[in-house]
């Protein structure tokens, strides 16, 4: 069994998403910079070790840049707009006086370490969640995720897939037409020039979409099953009621003041009805899937590691919440205890125990 | 500019590495009531949280906000993450992150200081002039100035309604001040919902005959065996009139209080509460470096393989 | 297999039927070629086979179309997906997924084929079409020929009984076109698939065809053996014209057959004087000099240090496979495209350094998709705009258009014009600026023989009036009829540059049909015609 476990293959995209969402959930529970930094390091290591070579996989760097930007902006905002809350003043910038109508806002002035740190912790938490989602995007093929959607949502998935391919097409069209405009002298600015670009591009896009529709139609897209109108109405009603129930249940769970009977029972009931609706809708569809991604042991391991990180973080927040949100009363290194630390380290498991990705080039350099 | 940054970085490092401060910052403020009309007395009453009330003086002659008074008296506070110190959620690490507060409508509630505390468990903010009753403050702690010679009160309100918030159980009477009635004007309410609106400056109190510092006059409620006997030739001294406004509480009914001298070190308390380990922090730092190095090595190896 | 019974079709709002009382029967395992001018109804006829006409296009269909006993009236096209596979003109526009393998499997997924069967069929199709090593490639990165093959494979996996193709080789260079046609022939021979295809470039397709259907344009069809139908067609590939000229009957359909019969005519031509060909360059100084032109896109080098001289009155043809740098070179020379190195000089100015309004007065260009330049709602409007843009007297563009393509209704929307008319309109718009140098990028794509002949005449006129004209194209026959000089590019460098006869003569990839049949000295039927007339 272990022989085939480590064969290079692409995992089911949902496994990577569960892992990443587990890490992101864990990050949302804490502002301790040790833990957040560890989560980022864990995500980076797993991405570098297990990503493929498609273009979407190589865009992870952008997420790191975005994360850095978020942290910097939070700190800068604290420095500019409200930095003096604390006893350790590190920087004394001149305060810029504002007119009377903006009397409550303070620009610059003294900057304290506590407020800068507060901004840093806050920004770091958001940045960590962004990095986790970026890791999911880099590791899981988004198109295959759409393919893995339940049969009832197939049309929606197809529409999204087609829409995703429209944008590069549009961009290419615009470029071609702009170049062609130069051949006519590139006349003028404003509405006429815009018209000269928009009309050919839109006409092109319309033509292509008609061709695509004809092609899909000829290849059998939309072959209906034998469902009657009544059956279709019933499944539609089931799905709508189920989704409403889920919405109400989620709201009631998150808001503490609504009566308890609206929370868990309604949530569970709504989920059950929605699933029944999906099942019924999926049954009328006669479509098969080519080489669907399967959940094997490796997917379970990857997903379980993400869930474990989230569970440990939820558990420790009950036991010692102090470290998860380090206090800024007195300025000192944030404290850390062992359980959350070990919990976060569990997220590294996919870097070691997930099958390697399929690469075009071999990993070893031939001698 | 560069030298300033270096100085700032050095200051941060020094502060981080230096010994942590004590719970009460003994370098600030003085224990007990303020002796004179300069400065303001800050009273912190833990009420149902448990713990001895602390009374300290902020002896500053300059004006300052309620927050300045609280910090200047040496108390260690924490504001919520969302509003900063605009809303105080912990005073002297109470309520701490580990203690469960029996707030109404919330099971096992712990104050995590992330967002505004609920109305059933929060620190209520009071103020009073000398000899005045406690007034529930209509302004936030950063939006109003303290009353010189007066009192700033903090009382933990647990499961109360808006009308029944408990005031601090220390009477707002400076020992040795004998005027007996309340001079502080009523503060106007805020006119808008703008959180940055500041309270208008207080008009100067009218000069009093004899001034505030009359240590000789005992308060009216005391029986004074040394009162001058009424003679037939002089008129008896005027009786104190029962005024329309309520008076300050009876200092004889003050709860037990300290000046905060013996409070434990907040950082030690935190460390104990959390079960943190210094080693864990070092291990975390080392783990981050190790993971980064591993990621870099794997990326380098792949690049090499791709170019081959 | 396919039966059309008294079929007539009107588009919505059209008075004249596109198809009028067409009755046809196509048997199983036949390769049928549809021919006719552009706009005459070939695509419509192909669409009736799988029901796209009228279910998808709208309009009114009278009569019955039956495929394998099932009428298209009762079912929409998707219910025919297992019977009829349709490949459109633009394969890239018809792709639904991202990679080759997923595209091949898409049709089978819609049909609900079992997963094991799907895998087996995908592997078989990859082998059949020779695209096995492309299986994980994104579709966008494939060449035109590979895309066409993937499109064919995507419908083949459904094992249809009928394969319908609309101009499969229009965008391909000769070698890729040969590949695709050979694959189709193999399908017909080995698998017994019925193949119905519409094609302009009949010279490639005629050897493979079992049946020929010609649409003259009045709604009817002429249907029969290729030799018989071709004999009566006004437009014909060179081999047929040569056959008519030499009086061969029945007409030979492949170059091999023709060569066997060409002995007599070869003997005649040996005695005739060699055809007079104009010199490739003129002794006067060139109108445009380009030296060491370099064009790069990121790390790819499209044009590597190319030198080009264009003389007045001469027509230069630039040939080369797709991706060899022809378009990049033309754009760089015109000045609107990127140019990372080298110099271009037109009468002392560098068009790349001038604003585009002035550059177009020096070098005019008609790009590959001519329709990108048109954005107004009527031909009249485009002409007026062109006059304004070129600071020409009003009416110049109209006059040019009438001389290039007479009979164009000025109120028509430019998108409703035929390919040839649209090309003529864009050409008129660019000529309004009266540039001395004119560049045409793949003008013959989608044009039928008549339109191509008209274009060749126009190009000749332009050259005679003292312009330098450059044509980038794959079409060997067109080049032979119009060009004085041929430049062949490969990987961004010039491989050969010389008079037409020299470059086209010896190489098998670039030889015209006449050259293949008679000999490397003779390129076009008109040369043979003139020589024979002179000999008599």
From TrEMBL, chain A:
Coiled coil: none
Pfam family, one: CbiQ
Bilayer-crossing regions: 33-50, 62-84, 96-117, 233-254, 260-282, 294-315, 335-354
Keywords: Membrane, Transmembrane, Transmembrane helix
Domain of life according to the entry: Bacteria
The keyword Transmembrane appears for this protein: yes
Membrane topology: Multi-pass membrane protein
Localization per Swiss-Prot or TrEMBL: Membrane
Name assigned to this protein: Cobalt ABC transporter permease
Species assigned in the record: Asanoa siamensis
Gene, per the UniProt record: cbiQ_2
From TrEMBL, chain C:
Pfam family, one: ABC_tran
SMART domains in the cross-refs: AAA (SM00382)
Alphabetical list of PANTHER family matching this protein: ENERGY-COUPLING FACTOR TRANSPORTER ATP-BINDING PROTEIN ECFA1, HEAVY METAL TRANSPORTER
Family to which this protein belongs: Belongs to the ABC transporter superfamily.
Protein's name according to its UniProt entry: Cobalt ABC transporter ATP-binding protein
Keyword annotations: ATP-binding, Nucleotide-binding, Transport
Coiled-coil boundaries: none
Domain ABC transporter: 2-242, 288-516
UniProt keyword Transport, yes or no: yes
A GO molecular-function descriptor: ATP binding
Domain of life (superkingdom): Bacteria
């Amino acid at each position: 069994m272990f022989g085939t476990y480590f064969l290079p293959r692409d995992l089911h995209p949902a496994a990577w998403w569960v892992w990443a969402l587990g890490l992101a959930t864990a990050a949302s529970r804490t502002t301790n910079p040790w833990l957040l930094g560890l989560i980022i390091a864990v995500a980076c290591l797993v991405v570098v070790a297990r990503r493929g070579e498609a273009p979407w996989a190589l865009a992870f760097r952008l997420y790191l840049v975005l994360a850095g930007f978020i942290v910097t902006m939070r700190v800068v905002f604290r420095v500019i707009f409200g930095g003096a809350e604390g006893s350790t003043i590190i920087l004394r910038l001149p305060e810029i006086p504002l007119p009377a109508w903006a009397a409550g806002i303070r620009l610059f002035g003294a900057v304290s370490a506590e407020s800068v740190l507060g901004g840093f912790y806050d920004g770091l938490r958001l940045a960590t969640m962004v990095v986790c989602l970026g890791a999911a995007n880099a590791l899981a093929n988004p198109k295959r995720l759409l393919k893995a959607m339940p049969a009832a949502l197939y049309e929606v998935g197809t529409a999204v897939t087609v829409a995703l391919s429209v944008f590069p097409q549009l961009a290419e069209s615009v470029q071609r037409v702009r170049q062609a405009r130069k051949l006519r002298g590139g006349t003028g600015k404003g509405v006429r020039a815009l018209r000269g670009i928009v009309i050919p591009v839109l006409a092109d896009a319309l033509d292509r979409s008609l061709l695509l529709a004809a092609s899909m139609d000829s290849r059998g897209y939309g072959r209906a099953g034998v469902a009657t109108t009544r059956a279709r109405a019933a499944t539609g009603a089931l799905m709508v009621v189920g989704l409403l129930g889920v919405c109400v249940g989620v709201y009631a769970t998150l808001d503490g003041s609504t009566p308890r009977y609206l929370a868990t029972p309604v949530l569970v009931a709504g989920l059950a009805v929605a699933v029944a609706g999906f099942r019924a809708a999926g049954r009328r569809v006669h479509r098969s899937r080519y080489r669907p991604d399967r959940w094997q042991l490796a997917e379970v391991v990857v997903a379980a590691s993400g869930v474990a990180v989230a569970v440990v973080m939820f558990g420790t927040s009950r036991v010692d919440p102090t470290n998860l949100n380090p206090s800024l009363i007195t300025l000192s290194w944030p404290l850390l205890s062992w359980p959350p630390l070990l919990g976060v380290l569990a997220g590294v498991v996919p870097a070691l125990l997930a099958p390697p990705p399929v690469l075009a080039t071999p990993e070893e350099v031939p001698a | 500019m560069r030298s300033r940054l270096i100085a700032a970085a050095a200051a941060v490092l020094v502060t981080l590495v230096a010994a942590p401060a004590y719970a009460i910052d003994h370098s600030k403020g003085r224990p007990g009531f303020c002796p004179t009309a300069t400065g303001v007395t800050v009273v912190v009453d833990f009420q149902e949280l448990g713990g001895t009330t602390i009374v300290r003086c902020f002896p500053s002659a300059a004006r300052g906000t309620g927050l300045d008074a609280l910090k200047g008296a040496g108390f260690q506070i924490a504001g919520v993450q969302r509003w900063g110190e605009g809303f105080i959620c912990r005073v002297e690490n109470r309520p701490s992150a580990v203690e469960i507060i029996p707030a109404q409508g919330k099971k096992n509630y712990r104050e995590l200081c992330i967002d505004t505390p609920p109305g059933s468990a929060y620190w209520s903010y009071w103020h009073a002039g000398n000899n005045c009753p406690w007034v529930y403050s209509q302004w936030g702690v950063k939006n109003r100035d303290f009353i010189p010679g007066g009192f700033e009160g903090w009382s933990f309100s647990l499961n109360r309604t808006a009308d029944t918030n408990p005031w601090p159980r220390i009477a707002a009477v400076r020992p040795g001040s004998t005027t007996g009635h309340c001079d502080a004007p009523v503060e106007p309410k805020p006119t808008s919902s703008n959180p940055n609106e500041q309270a208008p400056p207080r008009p100067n109190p009218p000069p009093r005959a004899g001034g505030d510092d009359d240590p000789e006059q005992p308060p009216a409620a005391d029986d004074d065996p040394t009162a001058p006997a009424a003679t037939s030739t002089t008129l008896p001294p005027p009786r104190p009139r029962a005024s329309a406004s309520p008076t300050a509480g009876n200092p004889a009914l003050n709860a037990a209080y300290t000046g905060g001298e013996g409070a434990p070190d907040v950082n030690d308390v935190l460390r104990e509460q959390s079960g943190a380990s210094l080693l864990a922090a070092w291990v975390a730092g080392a783990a981050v470096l190790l993971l980064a190095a591993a990621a870099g090595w794997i990326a380098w190896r792949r690049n090499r393989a791709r170019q081959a | 297999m396919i039966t059309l019974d008294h079929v007539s079709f009107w588009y919505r709002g059209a008075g004249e039927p596109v198809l009028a009382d067409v009755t046809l029967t196509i048997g199983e395992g036949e390769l049928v070629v549809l021919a006719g001018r552009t706009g005459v109804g070939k695509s419509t006829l192909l669409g009736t086979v799988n029901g796209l006409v009228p279910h998808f296009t709208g309009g009114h269909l009278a009569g019955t179309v039956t495929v394998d006993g099932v009428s298209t009236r009762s079912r929409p096209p998707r219910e025919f997906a297992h019977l009829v596979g349709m490949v459109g003109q633009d394969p890239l526009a018809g792709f639904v997924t991202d990679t080759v393998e997923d595209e091949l499997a898409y049709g089978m997924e819609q049909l609900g084929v079992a997963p094991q069967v799907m895998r087996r069929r995908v592997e078989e199709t990859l082998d059949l079409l020779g695209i096995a090593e492309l299986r994980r490639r994104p579709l966008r990165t494939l060449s035109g020929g590979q895309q066409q093959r993937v499109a064919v494979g995507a419908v083949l996996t459904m094992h249809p009984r009928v394969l319908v193709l609309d101009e499969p080789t229009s965008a391909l260079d000769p070698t890729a076109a040969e590949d695709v046609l050979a694959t189709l022939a193999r399908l017909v021979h080995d698998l017994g698939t019925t193949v119905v295809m519409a094609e302009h470039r009949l010279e490639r397709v005629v050897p493979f065809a079992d049946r020929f259907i010609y649409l003259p344009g009045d709604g009817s069809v002429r249907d029969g053996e290729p030799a018989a139908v071709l004999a009566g067609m006004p437009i014909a590939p060179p081999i047929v014209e040569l056959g008519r000229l030499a009086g061969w009957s029945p007409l030979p359909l492949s170059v091999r057959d023709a060569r066997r019969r060409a002995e007599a005519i070869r003997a005649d031509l040996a005695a005739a004087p060699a055809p007079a060909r104009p010199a490739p360059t003129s002794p006067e100084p060139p109108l445009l000099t380009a030296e060491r032109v370099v064009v790069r896109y990121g790390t790819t080098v499209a044009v590597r240090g190319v030198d080009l001289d264009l003389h007045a009155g001469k027509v230069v043809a630039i040939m080369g496979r797709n991706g060899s740098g022809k378009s990049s070179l033309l754009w760089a020379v015109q000045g609107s495209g990127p140019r990372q190195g080298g110099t271009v000089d037109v009468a002392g100015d560098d068009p790349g350094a001038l604003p585009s309004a002035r550059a177009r007065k020096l070098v005019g260009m008609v790009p590959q998709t001519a329709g990108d330049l048109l954005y107004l709602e009527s031909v009249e409007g485009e002409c007026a705009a062109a006059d304004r843009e070129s600071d020409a007297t009003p009416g110049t563009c109209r006059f040019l258009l009438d001389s290039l393509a007479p009979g164009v209704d000025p109120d028509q929307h430019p998108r409703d014009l035929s390919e040839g008319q649209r090309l003529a309109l864009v050409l008129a718009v660019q000529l309004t600026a009266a540039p001395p140098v004119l560049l045409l990028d793949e003008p013959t794509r989608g044009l039928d023989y008549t339109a191509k002949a008209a274009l060749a005449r126009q190009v000749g006129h332009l050259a005679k009036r003292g312009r330098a004209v450059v044509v980038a194209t794959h079409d060997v026959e067109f080049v032979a009829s119009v060009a004085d000089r041929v430049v062949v590019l490969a990987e961004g460098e010039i491989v050969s540059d010389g008079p037409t006869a020299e470059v086209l003569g010896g190489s098998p990839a670039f030889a015209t049909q006449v050259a293949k049949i008679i000999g490397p000295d003779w390129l076009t039927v008109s040369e043979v015609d003139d020589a024979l007339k002179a000999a008599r």
